[in-house]
Design brief:
The structure holds two protein chains of two kinds. Chain A is mostly helical. Chain A has 17 helices and two strands. In chain B, helix 1 (about 1-15) packs across helix 8, helix 11 (about 255-285) runs antiparallel to helix 14 and helix 12 (about 290-305) runs antiparallel to helix 14. The relative contact order of chain B is 0.15. Classes of the chains: A mainly alpha, B mainly alpha.
């Protein structure tokens, strides 16, 4: 019975010229938006690779240089575009793109795209995710509303119900037929993305998760829309409530909740953060200050270890040892302070995710960004990996300074670019989504709860007296 | 005339008796207050940070003055970074460039959260330094955007208008008595315009009424009166734009539902699709700038300068700063490596300025392109205009960068002048330096 109702609904949909035209417009929009998204990602990726190559070539061709000087010279890393940037660019245009990795200091990532021009939009670029998050659901709301209200107005719904068809099954079938329509648009968009994207297993898993997330969200939207349309006698009230809900979910609540989580779990101001780090750092070894107490202790330790009386007798360059000790202390300070910030970010994220219980749109947005690799979790992963690379780079340089053959105080001692070329390049590998799925449990759970809730409304809460 | 007054009177009855409309207006008013409060919190936060920087600077200045006293009295030895040498004295002259928030950011936080607003300036600084990073914030929250007043105005006002206007003329069509109305000696056009005017006036008055307390609180009336009036004009024009669009939809509409669907579709097109489309096109045309030109100067070209021989550097300095030719050191026949090394930042600064100029030019090209699309992207036109009057746009921060550059130039000028003239810095001269670098504030104090 349900299948025949669904088929019948589809026949009605196909016969309606407006819907055919709108569907064609959607298809064309999706094709052009996917094409633009891929073109933009390709351009940006090319620019990023070119910048990376340019900077690496400079490093490879360094003139003979003291390793510590090379640590100050530093390297730049450029944030690559996320794995599915062309689908949903999440926080990418807000966060910086260039990070200098050097000795003594841990810099911040800077030069975001958003800071390079006047304001262009407030909901981000027109990506397939924009169409799939804003336009398709809105269209599904109109379709669901139209489907029920037309049948109510013409008395068709009453007629079918009086023929003995279960009203719940009828509404559910109508919902499923509209949901399938949304799903086709979704599959079309995802398929295009899949054809243009990479062939890795991780990419496939991410695409799969995206498909499921959007599919669940569309189901919620359609079921709630048909339920509300069927539950109100007055069509104007029904469409008003539907649109009000859509506005609350997509426009109002995400911003309100987003601002609130920052108030509940506040981050330190940059000034305080820097001064606290500076203060903690000052308790360590000042690599450039020979009168520093801790430096003296380290000196005694090394003199005793090599059983010599003065630094000049050491077979190694003590300056390199001091620099590395300073770095290692600095790393602890970084771990403490940045770790604390990352913890606050995590708390904020969790609290924001909980809003999914009130607003499934938030869960969808989180999952979309997360599976596209463009959310905060992926951004922080990039920063952590860049910091790990910085530690490797500086340790390699300090070790060369200490054990490369120079003596303490020989600041003019240099190494040639054979050594610099031997330093590995920073290659960022996006996290495997299967290892990170626990970060998205709340969002997934919220969507499932909403699916069950909306299914429950249709199954048990349809008021026959309003329709019949 | 009384006919129109009657329509207005009945429209007010209709509005007051509609719980949907009253609740929507109330929610909208709460959103305005929330938005203004968000802006006001940011305004206060920036001011507190700026005050704290000023206070730290004042403490440091005092400490330095005591050090000069003790040095002059022979109570302490000269430290490693000798403050009697102009280079180190200027290095130790606190010089912050600050971007003070305009009180108008209460109404639009604009791009404020995309930029840093305080920077310690040294002779080695550049306008794209890492320490000019924006305030620490959750990137997902930044991507979602702030619910400030400008957001409420630009995005929620049309939604409120949809709720208030979608059944005007539509209800009559739904019930089939619209033709009856036009029999009452009034045209459809006049009848609709009068009813729309009612909501236009209610909305505009409500906004004015709610903005005034925040304007008083943040000092807009004393510091930014003209900007406030410009904002009011923009609000007026913006509401007028939407009311006009909705008027045409209702004029040709087929009923409440048809009008509501058309209105929300136009809203989605103008608020989300068009800005998003132009944003995407801009990104394709102008890829994210990875600042390679600047990085080259900050690293490679800077090191090339460091590797130059002292006499080459001296010649370069004399060529780049001709005023040095008449300095005391320029008359010497022996090269002083110390003086040259302390002057090198002058050469690096020239390269930095060149690179920064190129980057600003590229950004300007991008901005010109964005501006050319604003005719088809009216919401972002208004957004940028509001950001402009709130001094929260790209150009407000460009001006701030220019002020930073002026401070850097001043530092270098003084270092070169006093180093090459072999000046010794005492307390008096240090006080002169302090006066020169009295905190540079961009925007309102």
């Amino acid at each position: 019975m349900m299948i025949s109702i669904i088929l019948n609904e589809w026949k009605i949909l196909v016969r309606n010229r407006s819907i055919v035209y709108v569907s064609l417009v959607f298809m064309l929009s999706i094709i052009s938006v996917v094409w633009m998204g891929n073109l933009q990602s390709k351009n940006q990726s090319q620019a990023q690779i070119a910048a990376e190559k340019h900077i690496r070539a400079q490093w490879d061709n360094l003139e003979p240089m003291n390793p510590h000087r090379a640590a100050h010279y530093g390297v730049y890393v450029f944030k690559p575009i996320s794995i599915l940037n062309s689908l949903d660019d999440g926080v990418s245009s807000i966060t910086g793109n260039v990070l200098k990795l050097e000795g003594h200091v841990q810099n911040e990532i800077v030069h975001s795209e958003a800071s390079q021009s006047i304001a262009i939009s407030r909901f981000g670029k027109l990506k397939p995710s924009t169409i799939m998050q804003y336009m398709v659901p809105l269209f599904l709301i109109f379709l669901s509303f139209g489907s029920i209200s037309n049948d109510k107005e013409t008395g068709r719904l009453k007629l079918i119900a009086l023929q003995g068809v279960s009203l719940e099954k009828l509404i559910l079938s109508k919902s499923l037929s509209i949901w399938l329509y949304g799903l086709i648009l979704l599959i079309f968009s995802i398929l295009l993305q899949f054809l243009l994207g990479s062939s890795s297993a991780d990419f496939g898993i991410r695409i799969g998760f995206i498909l499921i997330s959007y599919g669940l969200y569309y189901f919620i939207v359609v079921c709630l829309s048909t339920y509300i349309s069927a539950s109100f006698k007055n069509n104007t009230s029904a469409i008003s409530l539907l649109l009000a809900t859509w506005i609350m979910w997509t426009i109002f609540l995400p911003k309100i909740w987003g601002n609130t989580v920052e108030k509940v779990h506040p981050l330190p101001s940059r000034q305080n953060f820097i001064s606290q780090m500076k203060e903690d750092r000052s308790k360590g070894i000042d690599g450039h200050n020979p009168t520093d107490e801790r430096r003296s202790k380290l000196k005694e330790e090394y003199l005793a270890r090599y059983n010599v009386d003065s630094l000049s007798q050491l077979p190694i360059n003590f300056d390199g040892i001091v620099m590395q000790a300073d770095e290692e202390y600095g790393n602890q300070v970084w771990d403490k302070h940045f770790g604390n910030n990352y913890l606050i970010y995590q708390k904020q994220k969790r609290l924001y995710q909980l809003s999914g219980l009130l607003n499934p749109f938030s869960s969808l947005q989180n999952l979309s960004m997360g599976f596209c690799g463009s959310d905060m979790i992926h951004h922080l992963d990039f920063l952590k990996k860049a910091e790990l690379y910085r530690r490797y780079l500086i340790k390699t340089l300090n070790d060369k300074h200490a054990h490369g053959g120079s003596k303490t105080g020989e600041w003019r001692w240099t190494v040639d670019n054979t050594f610099f070329r031997s330093v590995k390049t920073f290659k960022y590998q996006t996290m495997k989504i299967k290892d990170q799925i626990e970060n998205y449990y709340i969002d997934i759970l919220s969507l499932i709860v909403w699916v069950l809730f909306s299914g429950f409304l249709i199954r048990y809460k349809i008021k026959r007296d309003i329709i019949i | 005339m009384s006919k129109y007054l009657d329509i207005l009177k009945f429209e007010s009855f209709h509005c007051i008796n509609s719980p949907y409309k009253i609740i929507s207006i109330l929610l909208y008013a709460i959103s305005i207050l929330y938005g203004c409060q968000t802006g006001y919190d940011l305004f206060k936060k920036h001011n507190i940070e700026i005050k704290s920087i000023k206070s730290k600077n004042a403490d440091f200045e005092k400490k330095m003055l005591v050090q000069y006293d003790e040095l002059e009295q022979g109570l302490i030895e000269k430290p490693r970074r000798d403050p009697t040498i102009p280079y180190w004295a200027i290095w130790n002259t606190p010089s912050y460039a600050l971007k003070s928030p305009s009180p108008m950011i209460v109404f639009s936080t604009g791009q404020v959260e995309q930029y840093g607003y305080y920077k310690k300036v040294t002779n080695w600084s550049t306008v794209f330094d890492n320490d000019l990073a924006e305030e620490i914030a959750n990137p997902e929250r930044l991507a979602l955007g702030t619910l400030d007043f400008s957001f409420v105005l630009l995005f929620l006002t049309p939604i409120l208008l949809i709720i208030l206007l979608f059944n005007i003329g539509g209800l009559e069509k739904d019930n089939g008595f619209d033709k009856l109305i036009y029999l009452n000696d009034i045209s459809k056009k006049s009848w609709l315009i009068t009813r729309f005017s009612y909501y236009f006036l209610v909305l505009f008055t409500l906004i004015c009424f709610l903005l005034i307390p925040y304007a008083v609180l943040s000092g807009v009336f004393t510091n930014e009166l003209m900007s406030f009036f410009t904002l009011m004009l923009l609000i007026f024009l913006y509401i007028f734009l939407w009311v006009s669009i909705f008027y045409f939809i209702n004029y040709w509409g087929k009923g409440s539902v048809d009008q509501a669907i058309k209105m929300i579709s136009v809203w989605v097109a103008l608020s989300i699709i068009m800005p998003g489309l132009f944003h995407q096109i801009t990104s394709i045309k102008f890829s994210t700038n990875y600042m390679v030109d600047y990085l080259d100067v900050a690293r490679d070209q800077r090191y090339e300068i460091f590797d130059m021989s002292t006499d080459t550097l001296q010649n370069e300095l004399l060529e780049s700063f001709p005023a040095l030719k008449s300095s005391v050191y320029a008359q010497d026949t022996i090269i002083n490596k110390g003086i040259i090394n302390r002057s090198v930042s002058g050469l690096v600064n020239i390269l930095n300025k060149k690179a920064a100029g190129k980057i600003e030019k590229e950004s300007e090209l991008k901005n010109n392109f964005v501006r050319s699309t604003l005719l088809l992207n009216p919401i972002m036109y208004f957004q940028n205009k509001i950001n402009e009057v709130s001094e929260a746009d790209y150009y407000a921060y460009k001006l701030y960068r220019e002020n930073i550059q002026n401070s850097i130039d001043k530092k270098i000028e003084l270092i070169l002048r006093d180093t090459w003239n072999k000046e010794e810095v005492d307390k008096e001269r240090y006080i002169e330096y302090l006066k020169e670098f009295k905190i540079k504030i961009t925007g309102n104090i």
